[in-house]
Each structure stands twice: as C-alpha cells, then as structure tokens.
Design goal:
This protein is mainly alpha-helical. The protein has nine helices and two strands. The protein is globular and about 65 Å long.
Length: 249
C-alpha cells in the first residue's frame, strides 16, 4: 500500500514538472506564492542595495549597530521562502530555493563583521568576512536570476528566460569572476612581496577607475528587472486564469 502511494506521488511530481504552469493544472494559490515571493525578493534586494551603498546602519542596543541592508535581506528571505511554498517549478527548483535561502541568511550572518571591520579595518579576520559577504551577495543575485529563469521557462516565456539567464551570466562574469581573480591576485602578491593581504586588496581597489565599478554594479539592476518581470508575469497569469474561471465578473 505504501509503495503504491509513493509511486503515485512520484508520478504526480514528474507530471507537475513536465506540464506548463497554467490555471488548468495548478491552483491559483501557486501563482499567488510565486508573485508575492518575487515581489518580496525585488523590494528586499532594492532595500538591501540602497542601505548597503548608502552605508546605513541600525542601532539595536546601545553601541550595537547592524548594517541596514539586513532589513532588505530578511524581506528577500521571506520572498524566497514563499517561492518554496509554490511547489515544484522545475527539476532543480527546490534545491535552488534552498541554496538561495541559505545565501540570504548568510548575508545576515556576515552583517556584524561589516560594522566591526569599519571600526577595525586593519584586522584581517574582519576583512575576510567582508569579502565573504560580497561573495554571498553576488551568489544570491545569481540564484535569483536562475529562479526567475525557471519560472519563465515553465509559464512559458522564452524571452524572459533568455534575459534571466543572461543576467545571471552577467553576475557571474562581471561580479563573481572579477572578485575571485582579484582575491587570488592579491594573495599571490602578498606572498611574493611579503606584504599584508588587506594592503594589497586596498591598493588594487584604489587603482580601479570609478566607471568600472559602475559596470560591475550593473548586474544588480538587471537582477531587479528579472525578479520584477517574473512577479508581473505570475500576477498576470493569475488574473487571466481567474477571469477564465469567472467569466461573468
């Protein structure tokens, strides 16, 4: 009996993954979770970026300051959790949602190190954790684009999927790869010239022209566009299916 139920569940999951997301085979609540999830991700990422680049902080207790971007990260985490409640969208959906959720919570974990590093920028331990924050934030943008691409693929929306994948590739090529190359280059320079790693990093950062930083932050805006488009598409599909089920309204 248990084997039969398990086989039926597996068949149902496979059918759910193979069929497009339409009102005929999915309850409207799935679209509600998807639309609200991407909406929370959009606003969460936007708030986090504004707070981070604005160097804003929140004083929780006396002498205890937390970077303001944590507010946006928590909102984005709520959005990712809502995506997990939408069920299976692709074969890799649940794994990508879990990874994205872990990455967002890691942003919250690294938050105190950012404030401590501002007070003691010469400490290598704090500086390494700030680099970890940057890498985790970039990976978060990458996985948000992958989740948006999955939704575009299943709805289906070929143009949106291509855009989301291209935006994810932009995060990889314009943010993650340069960060990794810079860290490796500075490590080699520190070992070769017997200098401090953070000193080599600062020297490299200072030499980079401002226009390059503008290009490097472009994937942030593109990720916001992908998440907003995914939200809008899910909402329009929800309204369309609701109109089909209630023709007299």
């Amino acid at each position: 009996m248990n084997d039969t139920m398990m086989n039926d569940q597996m068949d149902s999951d496979r059918t759910d993954q193979d069929m497009p997301l339409t009102g005929a085979d999915l309850p409207p609540v799935r679209f509600v979770f998807l639309a609200k999830g991407f909406a929370c991700i959009f606003w969460g990422l936007l708030i986090a970026m504004i707070m981070f680049f604005g160097n804003a902080a929140v004083e929780v207790f006396h002498y205890v300051r937390i970077p303001g971007y944590v507010v946006g990260s928590l909102l984005a985490a709520w959005g990712v959790w809502m995506l997990s409640e939408a069920g299976v969208v692709s074969a890799k959906w649940r794994r990508r949602v879990r990874v994205a959720l872990i990455l967002v919570f890691l942003q919250v974990y690294f938050a105190p190190f950012l404030e401590w590093w501002k007070v003691s920028p010469h400490l290598l331990f704090y500086f390494v954790n700030v680099l970890g924050l940057l890498l985790v934030s970039m990976l978060t943008l990458f996985y948000v684009n992958l989740l948006a691409a999955d939704v575009f693929h299943r709805l289906p929306h070929r143009g949106g999927r291509i855009e989301a994948l291209a935006f994810g590739g932009g995060v990889l090529l314009l943010m993650i790869v340069p960060l990794v190359i810079t860290v490796i280059f500075c490590l080699v320079a520190a070992v070769r010239y017997q200098t401090d790693f953070e000193f080599e990093m600062w020297q490299t950062i200072i030499r980079i022209p401002i226009w390059i930083y503008m290009i490097l932050t472009l994937p942030c805006s593109l990720t916001l566009i992908a998440s907003w488009k995914a939200k809008d598409l899910c909402y329009r599909r929800l309204v369309h299916d609701d109109a089909d089920s209630n023709p007299m309204r």
